[in-house]
Design brief:
alpha/beta, 14 strands, six-stranded mixed β-sheet, 12 helices, five-stranded parallel β-sheet
Length: 281
Amino acid sequence: MAIRMIGLDLDGTLFDSQKRLTEYTKQVLEKAIAKGIMVVPATGRPRIGLPKSLLEISGIRYAIVANGSAIYDLKEDRSIYQNCMDREDAAELMRCTRHLEHTVQGAFLGEWGYMEAVDSVRLGQLPLVEEMKAYLRTSRHVVESLPELIRNSEDAPQKLVLMFLQDENGNPADQTEAEELVAQYEKFAFMSGGVGNIEIIDRHAGKGTALLELGNLLGISREEIMAIGDSENDLDMICKAGLGVAMVNGEDIIKKNADAITASNDEDGCAKAIEKYAVND
């Protein structure tokens, strides 16, 4: 069955290690769109974090953000689906992890990400490329208190994220304790975003669930959906799409559950998979 929709992770998948969209990849996306295929970014980023280089491609109308907690119609500039977290539990989780001294907290509500002033300072110490740090700074507002924001905002929380500074051995400090705390909340699911963090969403949400929901809205069946990803937060769509493709640079759990494996994100692996399975089928 021909592919009619492709869910694309961004970091580690569509973009190279320097967070760039290559000209070759851009051309392949345009070919897919010209063929009538719905190209859908499916990212852990908030709506405001969708890169300009991607939004400039004509024909990309829908985007899945916050690990599948929301779908946006970019043409009409509105959310068409949300699967948000319990407000009180999300606020309490931010409160009970605040004491972790090597952790950068974040919360996604509406189109934006938010962090406290202490996180803005710690952000510069994260073991990330400068392009990723720049994205984090420009996609987050600084607020006095994340728990109070979550409790009082008109927007329900879509996602929480905990990023970890490295210890003296180069390992994510605080991660074990943070995971133990998060695991106490039965309403939530958490997974790796591939950058030394854990990302927390409602346990019924996920990129795959959102892809299938968008497919239902557009009259596209599961068998006609392809998904490409590299990290644990892509597992839901890799498993639920008709064709799940893992990047060779991806985590073992993704490659184990994928139907196919493509080249790395520094070798235009995402574009090569789209050409092979969708454009040149």
